[in-house]
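Researcher: Please predict.
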Amino acid sequence: MLGWFKELSQMERKGFYGAFLGHAVDVFDFMIYSFLISTLLTQWEMSKSTAGAIVTWTLVSSLVGAIGAGLLADRYGRVRVLRWTILVFTVACFLCGLADSPEQLMVFRMIQGLGFGGESSLCMVLVTEMIRNPAHRGKYSGFTASSYSFGWGGAALAYALTFSLFEPETAWRVCFFLGIVPALVVIYLRRNLDEPEVFVNARAARKPGSAGRELARLVRRPLLRKTVLCSLLSGGMLGAYYAIATWLPTFLKTERGLSVFGTSSYLAVTILGSLVGYVAGAYASDRWGRRPTYILFALGAFAMAMVYMVIPVSNLSMLFLGFPLGVLMQGVFAGIGATISESYPNDIRATGYGVSYNVGRVIGSFFPLSVGWLSTGRTSLPLAIAIVAGTGYALVVLAAWLLPETTGMDLADAGEDEAAKQPAATAVPPLAPGAAGSKAV
C-alpha cells in the first residue's frame, strides 16, 4: 500500500513532513477552541450565538490571510511564505490564552485566522506541486490532509490532560498556550526545503502584473466556473465538518451528560475513524476518481450524522458509531487539495487555491453560527447539527457533479491553459488514474 511513498525523492518526503506537521499544528490551534466552548459559556456567561460567531469571524479572516499569502506565494515562493504564516497563527493562539472577554478572544482569533488561512492553503499547494507522478497526487495530498486528524487528536488530548491538572478557569488558557510548542518543530523542518520545480519554472516565465489583475483572472472566464464550484465544494465539506466538530464536544457534554474524560473518549473514536477516512479517501480519489469519491463519502457522512445526532441510541452504541462517522466525515476531504490545485494554472495556483478554498471557509463559517442560532429556542442542538451538516453535504454532491474530473492530470495542462488548448467537449481529462502518464511535473 505504501509502495508509492518509497518512490518519493528526499525533497518530496521533506516537503511532506513539513506540510504534514504544519497543517497538524494549524488544526490543533483552530480546533482547541471547540473543546473550550462549554467552559467559556460558563466562565464568561457567553451565549451559544456568540460562541459560534467567534468561529465565523476566525474563518472570515482566514480568507483575507489566504488571499494575501497566495499572492505572495505566487510571486516569492511557497516555502518562504509558509515560514511567515506559521509564526502568525501560533503567536495569535498564545495571545488567545491571555483574553479576558469574548471580544478580546474574537480579535485574537481573527489574527490567528490570517495565518491559519495561508498555512492550510499553501501546505496543500506545496505538496501537490512537489509530487512528480500525477498518478499518486491524490494519495500524496490525501495523506498530507490526514494530519487534520492528528491536530484534532492533539487538541482532544490537550483538553483532557490540562483539565485533569488545572481548574477550568486556568485549563482553558493553558490549552491555548500549548499551540506554540510544535510550531518550533515545523520551522526547523522547513529550514532547508526547496521550492517546487513547477513553481520555479512558472516564476521564470511569469509576466509582470498587479495583484488586482491576478485576482480578476479568478472571476473571469475560463476560471470563473471553477472558482465558484471549488468554493462550493470546499464550503460544503467544511461547513458540514464545522457544524459537527465545533458542537460535538458540547453535544456530548450537555446532551449526553458525559464528563471531560468521557467526552474525550468518544471523540478519540471519531478522530481515529477520521484518520482511516483520510487514508481511504486518498486511495479512492486516485483509484475511482475525485468526483465519485466526493459523492459517496458525502452521502455516507450525511446518513451517519443523522444516525449519530437524531436517532435515539445508547451511549455505548454512540461510542462505536463515532468511528464510521469519522471515516466518512473526513474521508470526503482527501482529494480537495489535488482537485483545487489541478483547477488552476501554475502561475496563479496559490492565489486560486487560497481564494476558492477560503471562500469555502467563509461559506462554512456560517454553519456553526447557524447551529448556535437554530439551537437557541428553535430546535434541539442534535437536530440543528444534523440539518446544517446535511445542507453542507448537499453542496458537496452538487459541486462534485458539476466539476470536471481531474484525476491523473499533468499540472502543465491545468486551469485556463487546458481550456485554451482543448475544445469544451474534450477538456475533461481521462478518468483513469494513470491516463496522464508518469511524466514528471
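Model: The two ends are 23 Å apart (CA to CA).
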